[in-house]
Amino acid sequence: MHVPSDTEPRGPQADTVAVVGAGVTGLVAAFRLLEHGVPVTVYEAADRPGGVIQSTREGGYLAECGPNSILESSAKIRALIGDLGLEPRRLYSDPRAENRYLVRGGRPVCLPASPLKFFTTELFSLGAKLRLLREPFIPRAPAEVEESVAQFVLRRLGREWLDYAINPMIAGIYAGDPERLSVKHGFPRLHALEQRYGSLLKGQILGARERRARGEISKQEAPKVSFDEGLQVLTDTLAARLGPALHLRAAVTRLARTHAGWEVTVRRDGAESVHRHRAVLLAAPAYRLAELELVADGAPDLAPLGAIYYPPVASVVLGFRREDVPHPLDGFGMLVPAVERFHILGTLFSSSLFPNRAPAGHVLLTTYLGGVRAPELALKPESELVDLTRRDLAVILGVRGEPTYVHVRVYPKAIPQYELGYGRFQALMEEVEARAPGIFLAGHFRNGISLGDSILAGHDVAGRIAEWLKTGAAGAA
Ligand SMILES: Cc1cc2nc3c(=O)[nH]c(=O)nc-3n(C[C@H](O)[C@H](O)[C@H](O)COP(=O)(O)OP(=O)(O)OC[C@H]3O[C@@H](n4cnc5c(N)ncnc54)[C@H](O)[C@@H]3O)c2cc1C
Predict the structure, then answer these.
(1) For residue 419, what is the DSSP state?
(2) Distance (Å) from CA 29 to ligand 1 centroid
(3) Do the Cβ atoms of 278 and 17 come closer than 8 Å?
(4) pLDDT tens across 136-148, in order?
(5) Strand locations in 89-229, DSSP E?
(6) Distance between Cα 267 and ligand 1 center (Å)
(7) How far apart are CA 8 and CA 444, in angstroms?
(8) What share of the chain is helix, strand, coil (3-state, %, to 5)?
(9) What backbone torsions phi and psi does residue 190 show, to the nearest 5 degrees?
(10) Ligand 1 center–CA 35 separation, angstroms
(11) Which distant-in-sequence residues (6+ apart) come within 8 Å of 273 by Cβ?
(12) Which of 22, 25, 21, 19 is nearest to 453 (CA)?
């Protein structure tokens, strides 16, 4: 792919929108912009598109290095898959893999799937069950108070719910720590449930009715989706649709405002080139955006975004002979509460979730280590990561024998933590868009951390940019 290598601004791209970053957010935005009739140029620093999404097929195993599945919670996600012609390659998770396990007392215990089972489960004490019945009578917090997830859960549900339900859930979603995450920014829907209904239980019931009326599905009920060759099928297909508009090994370093739009400086193979664009979408991780030089009168510096914490996470994918794993693996996976004092955060039963992830007679387990709970663990040598994982899997699932497949991937900066005070970053992003017209920001650091959130963010920001080009751009130039 070609990027001009001189240092002069170039004309041919002057009418296009620059997209910085070809992770799923940038790719979806670019694809939808093309559909709006807006030409795009996508600059990607790495030598492959997809960002943290990466699927590897080796010797009959299919490993996901990063995310494992998309929650199809919105019609827009279904529409994207349809528009890309990927319906024949889409896989829904096996309905027999609906069980979720939590580790208690060193053993995996199945989460109750119905209210009736909840009252008989050994996972929670009688005290915790009774405490749940009190929840609707706990008053809501004042709207202006920003609580951590831990403070919120302790107030509404008590210690056991925090330790055995919320702590592992936060490890599974954010690789995060409930003491540090902001309930308002990290779980805006939960915060809104309390503010609106005064109770999570009441809100669950009434909210579900309203969602059904709107034709939406909650994240708990949404089907889990992947593709025959893994999630990378989605980003590879998006990249193929962009064709020569996608420039790899092209890192954006500087954005300067001109009378007609933006000059975007791109570094490729040690050489810099400058390109004119009418608008720029910033869809790279926040710690990379913080390094960009933004030259525009009155626009704030992007450097403070570098303070958003992305802890390291290691993903250890192991294959085993079926007979070496006594557990039935009849579920989605298991999460490990911090109070259980294991090394691992949790394990997905990957070969139970989707077909063709392991050769016949074998299983595939994907385990995560590190996160905010134990960042130093994720950065240990690969052999130690595998040993720690095997030790924990031996105790919890009874796994024995040598692994038949090993794939380790470390993300030194994995998932942004929407911690207490995250509002200052959200406010900065809004200020950048207001004071640097034509600059847009979208992605996991702004619109929610899940893949589904990123797909919706890409879709929505494309609509915002197309609208701005029609109505706002003339006034701003
Ligand atoms: C280990 C792990 C497991 C996860 N599991 C799940 C899961 O199972 N389900 C789920 O829903 N979500 C999961 N997530 C979250 C989800 O994968 C991400 O939120 C989502 O993929 C983020 O996409 P993005 O496009 O916003 O960012 P990214 O994927 O980070 O893409 C940003 C891109 O910008 C590029 N870039 C950086 N700097 C520049 C520059 N200067 N110029 C040009 N390009 C640049 C990068 O190279 C990268 O390709 C997981 C995340 C991780 C790390």
Answers:
(1) B
(2) 14
(3) yes
(4) 899 888 888 899 9
(5) 90-92, 99-104, 107-110, 224-227
(6) 21
(7) 33
(8) 40, 25, 35
(9) -65, -45
(10) 23
(11) 3, 4, 5, 6, 7, 10, 265, 266
(12) 25
For the chain, the average pLDDT equals 93
Sorted by where each starts, the structural domains of the chain and their CATH numbers stand as: 9-52+231-308+418-476 (3.50.50.60), 55-73+90-96+311-411 (3.90.660.20), 124-214 (1.10.3110.10)
36-80 pLDDT, tens digit per residue, is 999 999 999 999 999 999 999 999 999 999 999 999 989 999 999
Minimal CA–CA distance to 310: which of 454, 453, 176?
Answer: 176
User: Given the CA of residue 452, which atom of ligand 1 is nearest to it?
Assistant: 11
Q: Which of 52, 232, 235, 449 to mutate to test the pocket of ligand 1 (most atoms within 8 A of CB)?
A: 52
Instruction: Transcribe 226-263 into DSSP letters.
Output: EETT-THHHHHHHHHHHGGGEETT-EEEEEEEETTEEE
For residue 22, the CA-to-ligand 1 centroid distance in Å is 9
Structure tokens at 330: 């009849």
Please identify which residue in the block is written with the tokens 């240990």.
380
What whole-number distance in Å separates Cα of residue 269 and Cα of residue 18?
A: 19
3-state SS track over 424-445: HHHHHHHHHHHHCCCEEECCCC
CA 448 / ligand 1 centre spacing (Å)? 12
Taking Cα atoms as reference points, which of 129, 150, 133 lies closest to residue 199? 133
pTM of the model: 0.94
Ligand 1 shell residues, CB under 6 Å: 20-26, 43-46, 51-53, 66-70, 251-252, 283-285, 288, 313, 315, 411, 414-415, 443-444, 449-452, 454
pLDDT at 4 over 60: no
pLDDT in tens, 323-361: 999 999 999 999 999 999 999 999 999 999 999 999 999
Give the distance (Å) from ligand 1 centre to CA of residue 457. Answer: 13
Contact in structure between 327 and 394 (CB atoms under 8 Å): no
Atom of ligand 1 nearest to the CA of 27: 25
CA distance linking residue 9 with residue 21, whole number of Å:
21
Partnered with residue 364 across adjacent β-strands are 319
Which residue among 54, 447, 451, 455 has the greatest number of ligand 1 atoms within 8 angstroms of its CB, and so is best to mutate? 451
